[in-house]
Amino acid sequence: MAAERYSFPVDVHHSSPNGMRMNRMLRMSRRDVLLAGMGAAVVSVTAHAAEPPEASAPGVADAAQFLTLSLRLTDRETLSPAIGNALYARIVQAVPERKEQISRLHALLQQKHFESAQALAKAAEQADPVFKDVIHDIMTGWYRGVAAQKVVVYRSALMFDITKDAVYPKTYATGGPFYWTSKPPEVPLPTGEPGLSPSKFVVEPT
Question: For the whole model, what pTM was predicted?
């Protein structure tokens, strides 16, 4: 193997001390470059192998079950599959047993044709009290955009959709100047009955 050759500046002996140090830094051989590259590759592979595996994306069937349940529980004909996937992934990541519970709740939905969210909620809580918490997680995700105390979606949360004719989300101003001085439209009082039993009131930090 031919000896490696270095190219020295012609005035190296007349260089300043700083210049000489710079010349030595620039005279890195090809072997040093190769060894440094191999070392970096080994470190990268080792670090990647030591990383914990990321949570896998929800399966197509699991996501479809979650969306079907969500449509019935919100009494809506359409919902965003992308938001549904994000909410489902966050819910089962925070509480792994929710995956099996959501699957069982979906099976209950398939066993009988429930005409409303109220009917499904009542039957679900009677079948298994744990379904009450499952339904809470699903509804909190869609209406507040929060799953396991983490904001998954903000502007598209359903709580803004049902009041969009009167109230705008914080940081959004879709009206003209001083639009808030106008009298808001009349909102009819709700007439429905709760589908689940009362829950303990919890004041969340703001």
Answer: 0.65
Two tokens, residue 176: 């003209």
Longest distance between any two alpha carbons in the chain, whole Å: 95
**Extents of the domains making up the chain:** 60-181
- Kindly provide the residue ranges of all beta strands, DSSP E only, lying in the chain, ordered along the sequence: 146-147, 150-151
**51: which DSSP letter?**
S
Which residue's structure tokens are 């709700």?
A: 190
- Helices 81-94 & 60-74, crossing angle to 10 degrees? 100
Checking 44-51 for CB contacts under 8 A at 24+ apart, the result is: none
**Is the separation of the CB atoms in 116 and 173 below 8 Å?**
no
Show the tokens assigned to 81. 């599959």
Strands (DSSP E) found in 40-189: 146-147, 150-151
| Those residues with Cβ within 8 angstroms of residue 46's Cβ, 6 or more apart along the chain or in another chain | none
**Residues 16-37: pLDDT tens digits?**
555 555 555 555 555 565 555 5
